[in-house]
Specification:
single chain; 406 residues; Growth Hormone, Chain: A; mainly alpha
């Protein structure tokens, strides 16, 4: 919609959102993730590491999210320089990752993983806050920007999957370095954004966190990411055990993210009709089904295809709802710290615990047990969410700004 230069009837000037610049950062950040997440475990296995070591290294990759986002979030909220932090963290992540080109032993892999993830894990939660600051009252447009991250993920998953069918996996670090450098370059185009002037915090961070619904919200997201960890760490290895090619593996990964994109496209419409609570509960119910189908019927490609389509709900639905809940719970003044805390606890603690348990039990008790535990995590999350999350207002939705006249 073309906005009027005169603003809306109330005299509020129209919001100029740098849509494509924000979208470009999401695209290349998740393009790098699309190269790292599905195939890094294959690279580690090719370097002689077993399931336990792969699980430990994967836990280190996400474990720094317990500290890094909170530290960078505190600095960003107190300096108002989120974009500067994002740019430096993106550049340093790319430089440190280059160390994998010379790493050969477990200790080197561990130290480089810690250093790389400390910087890389600082980027996304701060950029989520920057995006919401740019959107202001139009937070319902978040999914329209975030979907480009999913497009970037699909592009690299499919491209690298085909590449690895005919080339050695040793090429992977070079490809990731190139994507990380590009991700840094596009951050240079994004303008700084801050909380609206005159907005003061209604309450302190601790008083927000100790609310039962907020605590329950964080526990739910920890459990959801615990459930996703075996998928992120071992799904490609799992498919290889059943003799699926790298191309088919890439297609299955891409299918899940494609379903996520479709959800992002229609999320604004869903938010008009359904509450955040209803979307969350439905997503958790579908998550239980997804992990049971994945763990117990891997020999049936049709079942795996259906299970991957559920990624739209198990990740996309849960994540969009979480971003909006954080925005509502923490307000403008605590937004950077709130997004960082969400990232630290869910993608940090949850993913770390999930990576560790799946690494320990993958060979001893088998994939079926690991994915069954994932389903159990989602079942517990469903109960907790039903009792506590969103009950203070079952109709809670992101606020929409009145449309301006054209």
């Amino acid at each position: 919609m073309k906005q009027s230069s005169k603003g809306d009837p109330k005299g509020i000037p129209p919001i100029a959102v740098p849509y494509w610049r924000l979208s470009a950062v999401y695209f290349f950040y998740f393009a790098a993730l699309g190269a790292l997440l599905p195939y890094w475990s294959l690279y580690l296995k090719a370097n002689g590491f077993g399931p336990l070591e792969i699980g430990q290294l994967s836990a280190l990759l996400v474990g720094t999210k317990l500290v890094a986002p909170l530290l960078w979030g505190w600095i960003a909220d107190h300096t108002g320089k989120s974009i500067t932090i994002i740019r430096w963290a993106s550049l340093l992540a790319a430089i440190v990752f280059a160390g994998f080109l010379w790493a050969h032993h477990y200790n080197w892999f561990a130290w480089i993983t810690l250093a790389f993830s400390f910087f890389w894990n600082a980027v996304l939660p701060q950029f989520e806050a920057v995006t919401l600051f740019h959107l202001k009252q139009e937070s319902h447009r978040y999914s329209q920007i975030r979907l480009w991250g999913s497009v970037g993920f699909i592009a690299t998953v499919l491209g690298i999957g085909r590449l690895l069918d005919s080339h050695p996996v040793s090429l992977l670090p070079l490809l990731i370095i190139g994507l990380l450098m590009t991700s840094w370059l596009v951050t240079l185009m994004v303008p700084e954004a801050k909380a609206s002037l005159g907005v003061t915090a209604k309450s302190g961070m601790f008083s927000i966190i100790k609310k039962p619904q907020v605590l329950a919200f964080f526990v739910v997201n920890i459990l959801v990411q615990m459930a996703h960890a075996p998928y992120y760490v071992f799904y490609s290895i799992f498919l290889k055990q059943y003799h699926y090619s790298a191309t088919i593996t890439g297609l299955l990964w891409a299918l899940g993210v494609l379903a996520e994109i479709v959800l992002f496209i229609y999320m604004a419409r869903l938010l008009k009709r359904f509450s955040l609570r209803a979307i969350l509960l439905t997503s958790l119910l579908l998550a239980i089904a997804r992990w049971l189908l994945t763990g117990w019927f891997p020999e049936y490609l049709g079942v795996l295809v259906f299970a991957q389509l559920l990624h739209a709900a198990t990740f996309g639905g849960v994540h969009v709802v979480a971003i909006h809940f954080v925005h509502l719970y923490f307000g403008g003044q605590h937004q950077g710290k709130g997004q960082a805390l969400y990232s630290s606890l869910s993608f940090g603690m949850g993913a770390m615990l999930g990576s560790l348990y799946s690494g320990y039990y993958w060979e001893t008790l088998g994939p079926q047990f690991v994915y069954s535990v994932a389903a159990l995590c989602c079942a517990v999350a469903l109960v907790i969410a039903y009792i506590w999350v969103g009950r203070e207002n079952v109709n809670i939705r992101p606020k929409r700004k009145a449309k301006c006249k054209t």
